[in-house]
Here is the input.
Amino acid sequence: MLQSNKDSRRQESKSAIRVCATEDIKPGNALRVTIEGHPIALVRLNDGDFRAIDDKCSHGEISLSEGFVEDETLECWAHGAKFDLNTGVPLSLPAYEAVSTYEVLVENDEVFIEYEA
Ligand code: FES
Here is the structure.
């Protein structure tokens, strides 16, 4: 019982923040959005689904949203590290630390990211 109360408090601290309309980002592209000053790379996969990860490569001060979308990965343009868009884990060097991922919701052609302040 105590555990579930704790879980519900954790749930309540997350908010779904509207970041753009679905038409603002074409399939196969990434867009930099900001929530409370935190940059996030919003990616639209070729099948139309969305993913969101931190918009900072774990190898350097590079915006991942300026990189290349391929299947369910986002490649940093600077040195080629590819990040799994489902887990944030780098699949290739030189990056070796994961970046955070975020839940994306779509409702009535509007895109929301679940964000915990
Ligand atoms: S800054 Fe991204 S791979 Fe080096």
In short: Confidence is low (pLDDT under 50) at residues 1-10. The helical segments are 2-12. The longest strand covers residues 14-21. DSSP finds one helix and ten strands in the chain.
